[in-house]
Amino acid sequence: MKMSEGVEWAAHVCILLHWLQADDATPVPAARLAEAYDLPAPYLVKQVQALTRAGITESVSGVRGGLRLARPAGEITLMDVVTAVEGGAEAFACTEIRKQGMNAERPASDFRGPCGIAHAMRQAELAWRRHLASVTIAALADATPSSVPHDARRHFSRA
Hints:
This protein is mainly α. The protein has one domain: Winged helix-like DNA-binding domain superfamily/Winged helix DNA-binding domain (Arc Repressor Mutant, subunit A). Helix content is 52%, strand content 5%. It contains seven helices and two strands; from the N terminus they run H-H-H-E-E-H-H-H-H. It has a two-stranded antiparallel sheet. Strand 1 (57-60) and strand 2 (66-69) form a beta hairpin. Helix 1 (5-23) crosses helix 4 and helix 2 packs across helix 3. The two termini are 40 Å apart.
């Protein structure tokens, strides 16, 4: 399964907002977030809009407006971010080709349950989703060397 780079960008934005909000809940303009990672602002804006629609970030309007986390980083999982950016559709869609062609005349009773391929794919996806749901933005932020959030705060303290 391949995810868009928007997932990586959105997750890093969440971690960065967590670090910046540790001292101050001042919203950060999306353009500043894009600049911090040398990303194209229009594309990053699409990712943060998806985060806002999902209730992960909130947008604050006004002169000192921008983005901030909508809830504590310990309550935001990597699965939340993936779902916000990529959607919640299953990665594998079984089209039941086993019922076609050479098997078209077989009785329906031969196909009562899902095929082994569909079952294996679903189990793998559930394991992947469960793991991402167990990893919070706070845990990812905490696993980063302490100099990184310090440098990020210093970068954003410069006007």
